[in-house]
From TrEMBL:
Organism: Xiphophorus couchianus
InterPro entries with a match to the protein in the record: Ig-like_dom, Ig-like_dom_sf, Ig-like_fold, Ig_I-set, Ig_sub, Ig_sub2, IgLON_domain
This protein's UniProt keywords: Disulfide bond, Glycoprotein, Immunoglobulin domain, Membrane, Repeat, Signal, Transmembrane, Transmembrane helix
Pfam families registered for this protein in UniProt: I-set (PF07679), Ig_3 (PF13927)
Keyword NADP: no
Name listed for the protein in its UniProt record: Ig-like domain-containing protein
Span of domain Ig-like: 28-122, 131-211, 218-305
Residues annotated as transmembrane: 313-335
Family note: Belongs to the immunoglobulin superfamily. IgLON family.
Span of the signal peptide: 1-28
């Protein structure tokens, strides 16, 4: 196969140099420097390529070819491509210029020389690189916890781009995945913004994002009991985590509580507070906070203790205590306690 290619190239050369004989000799050219081996020129898509050819005074005819197509014969332009031109500095250079290079310009270019002794050629292979571009990426999705998720990120470029994934949480560590990122049994802590990056060192990497929302049933994280004296404001607190955001209900025994005279229920996202104005002896006891969404529900007991009988009423609510105290202050003004 290799021998056949050489034979084919020699036949092409012979045909071309027969054609060179028809070219006028008015163009002052010099013989090409043939000491160097065939070169590769790497150029980015959209840039201008200069393919060099230097000559001396022993030349009678010169031309540029791309594969088997004649581009220039002497100063006569045979190509119809307006992007192609000659670079001639005095009588020392006979170089080819291609503006706004595209992928179809890639290939072999030959500077062919006819001297009195023998024909000579200098070949250059033009390699066109294309920046990485992401042309298709998964849309934002909402899934239930435990589901299997596949995110896709398809990119093109020359050379082929490398695709990497990250979950943009505080660590933002790389994830195992290329065009497709598989997440088996996704958990709530895997929700967030996923970054797909395509890079091939030709230009700045292309980056796209996919937002993943993971639904899960409510989980009550902390409660806050209290032990107000009779006649003062009593506050019970309940906090739950859930996606979608949970709805809250308060119960005393089997009776659902609502905003009535003396009772005020506030809900802020995943937090709720039950406020009882002018606490009486009958108000002391066990209350139930219920958090629910379409995936499930969870309940927890919260206590309104008589002063001095409360056990661990502080729970783990220290982080949000100031918020509850602020709400309680507003409620106190509302109920005039």
């Amino acid at each position: 196969m290799h021998v056949g290619r050489k034979s084919c190239w020699r036949q092409l050369q012979a045909s071309f140099f027969r054609l060179l004989c028809l070219i006028p000799t008015g163009f002052p050219v010099r013989s090409v420097d043939m000491q160097r081996a065939t070169d590769n020129i790497t150029i980015r898509q959209g840039d201008t390529a200069i393919i060099r050819c230097y000559v001396d005074d022993k030349v009678s005819k010169v031309a540029w070819l791309n594969r088997s197509n004649i581009i220039f014969a002497g100063e006569d332009k045979w190509s119809l491509d307006p992007r192609v031109g000659l670079v001639t500095k005095g009588q020392l250079e006979y170089s080819l210029r291609i503006q706004k290079v595209d992928v179809y310009d890639e290939g072999s270019y030959t500077c062919s020389i006819q001297t009195k002794q023998q024909p000579k050629t200098s070949q250059v292979y033009l390699i066109v690189q294309v920046p990485a571009t992401i042309y298709k990426v998964s849309e934002d999705i909402i899934v239930n916890e435990g589901s299997n998720v596949t995110l896709s990120c398809l990119a093109s470029g020359r050379p082929d781009p490398l695709i990497t994934w990250r979950l943009l949480n505080p660590s933002a560590e790389p994830l195992d995945g290329e065009e497709y990122l598989d997440i088996i049994g996704i958990m709530r802590n895997q929700a967030g913004r996923y970054e797909c990056k395509a890079s091939n060192d030709v230009a700045t990497p292309d980056v796209k994002y996919v937002n993943v929302v993971v639904n899960y049933p409510p989980s009550i994280r902390k409660t806050q009991s209290s032990e107000p004296p009779v006649g003062r404001l009593g506050t019970l607190q309940c906090e739950a985590a859930a996606v979608p955001t949970p709805e809250f209900e308060w119960y005393r025994d089997d009776k659902r509580l609502s905003n009535t005279q003396g009772i005020n229920i506030q809900i802020l996202g995943g937090n709720t507070i039950l406020m009882i104005a002018n606490v009486t002896e009958e108000d002391y006891g066990n209350y139930t906070c219920v958090a629910s969404n379409r995936l499930g529900a969870q309940s927890s007991s919260v206590f309104l203790y008589r002063p001095g009988t409360g056990r661990d009423i502080n729970g783990s609510a220290c982080a949000s205590l100031s918020l509850w105290l602020l709400l309680a202050s507003f409620a106190c003004l509302f109920f005039k306690c």
